[in-house]
């Protein structure tokens, strides 16, 4: 017997996050007893077990319970959509200045407790880190508190087989299909890799693309930066061509141009933020805009508070505050909306291996508590900085 249930997420009560809700539903088999279902997290109705989704179960007093996706059927119902949680960090928030190593930190290498020139970082609801471990040609998953990670895509040497990757630069989770979408940079292709157990290879979504950074909005549009065409395109899943949403007007520093766009962030209004790396600035492109707005840097390469040096990873909270990995200055900066200069929030103590130092910070993310995570590229580690 099948049932239809509404996927209803309650408003978050957590001070750090604002929840943007999408109502959808799933069809599933009604032979899972209520007693075997785990309640959703009370703070944000998230499910921290892999491959589960929070539903109001009609036969369990409409309680928000975590339902296994393995018991759903996509053939009968529309795809599942998820809400997206975005940090809403106080503008005057501070972080511990000494980071704690939560992944890697054992030198360059390919062991499961090591990283090698990692580029992409994301955190799942349960604070599991998904890392594009580029130099090891793999995507590695690192659960909080574990001493070792686990390769979840690639990890079979450098190559172009469907079970291999070649210098992957970024990764995101497609919640609808419970899969990873990966920029397989060295192979100039986008691949999708199921997170279900037993998966041994990926599927090519787009090829012949010089991809680097990835983002996905709540309508499930995929955004990809192209470092050879100096543009960002938006794609529907299955679309091979996409639409230019930033750059695409040759290489230079005019407001309608980009110069090696690396990382991207997309907000709820489909505004695209781009780390315009070789122009040493972060650009904001409103939806359907013909040119961008400089929102950080743009004063040439340098270490003044008005400048950036080869910016990489970036994150934007609900207040419009921009957090950017200032790669060449070995620090992370915060730029409030409309600010003329930024502030250093961690790092900025010279290049080094200390707990308060970086050696080329390349990607960053926040967990649901507001703690900051940074890939420290040439120290081969991920550092966590606790919010105070």
Structure overview:
It is a single chain. The chain has two domains: 2-87, no CATH class; 100-385, Neuraminidase. Strands 8-31-30-29 form a four-stranded antiparallel beta sheet, with no helix packed on it. The chain is built from no helices and 31 strands. The protein is an all-beta fold and 388 residues long. Mean pLDDT is 88; it is low at 1-25 and 74-83. β25 and β26 (322-326) form a beta hairpin.
Which of globular, elongated, flat, extended, rod-shaped describes the shape?
A: globular
Find the CATH superfamily of the largest domain. Answer: TolB, C-terminal domain
Oligomeric state as shown: single chain
Overall pLDDT: 88
Strand percentage, roughly? 35-45%
**CATH class descriptor of the largest domain:** Mainly Beta
The name of the CATH topology of the largest domain is Neuraminidase
């Amino acid at each position: 017997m099948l049932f239809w249930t509404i996927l209803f997420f309650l408003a978050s009560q957590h001070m750090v996050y604002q929840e943007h809700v999408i109502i959808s539903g799933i069809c599933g088999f009604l032979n899972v007893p209520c007693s075997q279902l785990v309640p959703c997290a009370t703070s944000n109705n998230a499910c921290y077990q892999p491959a589960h989704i929070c539903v109001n179960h009609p036969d369990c007093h409409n309680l928000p319970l975590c339902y296994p996706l393995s018991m759903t059927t996509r053939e009968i119902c529309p795809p599942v959509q998820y809400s997206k949680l975005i940090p809403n960090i106080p503008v005057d928030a501070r972080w511990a200045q000494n980071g704690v190593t939560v992944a890697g930190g054992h030198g360059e290498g390919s062991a499961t407790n090591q990283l090698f020139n990692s580029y992409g970082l994301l955190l799942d609801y349960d604070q599991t880190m998904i890392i594009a471990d580029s130099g090891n040609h793999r995507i590695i998953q690192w659960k909080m508190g574990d001493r070792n990670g686990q390769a979840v895509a690639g990890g079979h040497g450098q190559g172009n087989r469907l079970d291999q990757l070649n210098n992957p630069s970024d990764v995101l989770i497609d919640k609808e299909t419970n899969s990873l979408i990966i920029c397989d940079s060295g192979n100039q292709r986008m691949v999708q890799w199921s997170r279900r157990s037993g998966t041994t290879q990926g599927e090519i979504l787009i090829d012949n693309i010089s991809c680097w950074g990835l983002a996905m909005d709540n309508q499930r549009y995929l955004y990809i930066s192209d470092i050879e065409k100096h543009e960002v395109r938006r794609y529907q899943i299955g679309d091979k061509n996409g639409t230019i949403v930033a750059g695409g007007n040759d290489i230079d520093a005019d407001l309608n141009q980009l110069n090696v766009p690396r990382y991207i962030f997309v907000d709820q209004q489909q505004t695209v933020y781009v780390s315009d790396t070789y122009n040493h600035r972060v650009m904001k492109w409103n939806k359907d805009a013909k040119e961008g707005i400089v929102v950080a840097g743009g004063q040439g390469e340098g270490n003044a508070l008005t400048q950036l040096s080869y910016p990489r990873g970036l994150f934007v909270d609900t207040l419009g505050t921009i957090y950017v990995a200032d790669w060449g200055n070995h620090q992370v900066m915060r730029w409030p909306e409309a600010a003329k200069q930024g502030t250093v929030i961690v790092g900025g103590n010279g290049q080094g291996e200390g707990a308060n130092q970086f050696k080329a910070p390349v990607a960053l993310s926040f967990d649901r508590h507001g703690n900051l995570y940074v890939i420290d590229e040439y120290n081969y580690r991920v550092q966590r900085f606790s919010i105070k």
